[in-house]
Write a structure and sequence with these properties.
The chain has three domains: 101 residues, Cobalt-precorrin-4 Transmethylase, domain 1 (3-Layer(aba) Sandwich); 81 residues, Rossmann fold (3-Layer(aba) Sandwich); 95 residues, 4-hydroxy-3-methylbut-2-enyl diphosphate reductase, catalytic domain (Cobalt-precorrin-4 Transmethylase, domain 1, 3-Layer(aba) Sandwich), CATH 3.40.1010. Helix content is 40%, strand content 20%. It has a five-stranded parallel β-sheet, with helices on both faces. Helix 5 links the parallel strand 6 and strand 7. Bound molecules: iron/sulfur cluster. Iron/sulfur cluster binds next to helix 1, helix 4 and helix 7.
Amino acid sequence: MGLKIELARVYGFCPGVRRAVEMIEEHLAREGRVATLGAIVHNARVVETLSQKGAVVARGLDGVQEPAVAITAHGAGREVYAEIERRGLKLVDTTCPIVKRAQEVARALAQDGYTVLIYGEESHPEVRGILSWTEGKGYATMSPDDLFELNPKTLAIVSQTTKDQKAFWEFVREVIARLHPAIKDLRVVDTTCPETGRRYRAALELAERVQAIFVVGSRNSANTRKLAETCERTGVPTYFIEDARELRPEWVHGLSCVGVTAGASTPDELVREVVSRLRKLGGESA
Ligand code: SF4
């Protein structure tokens, strides 16, 4: 009997990343060259494919030679928009609508006089962007121990979109426990994105049905690494691979059913190639 290959119920590109890649491809097909402010997605294959079509990854606006620049799905701060306009560059804004909402919520709360606390990593590009929209009225932290800087009287709490929703609400509970009764006015807006959690849950379901899991994606993709860690914690042998070439025949030797999943930055073609190689190594697709 052949090897059964099961795909996770949800895997690969999230809608925000898919939209960003499609917007860049459409721009390249229509107008040619574009500089993206950072990699449009943390995946070497995607970056390579887009670069062959005319996209260049830029670290910042200085030195951009292309007539157009693209903001990635993570979004950017208001000063980046202003600078693009000042330089007369054409803008391709691929900010994910869910990130855009987080920016708009943070901006509105800051304008209403709230101190905006962002549950997230201060150094992450998405968080830096959201902070910028608060115009100096925002703080980012993952730890309730850092709250001493805050004016707690009028406090609002939002989240980096990719943070776990449960962890966000635990953070909110902890903030309230520490600052009560100093808080006079509190607003909490859940700006987490359901997409990351959907991939983790689907991977856990998959782990219950298979003897080994292959997680496909770049090692520099934080969300794929976390997905692989989630799979590893189930105790099912987990192999984190960048592409089909890394698959070793001995990993499936003697197995009857294996699972495949991929992070939100992994394109479908890499998953297809892994499934196809697994088939050759002795299987049939589910
Ligand atoms: S993970 Fe969610 S917020 Fe981030 S790009 Fe994808 S859809 Fe948008």
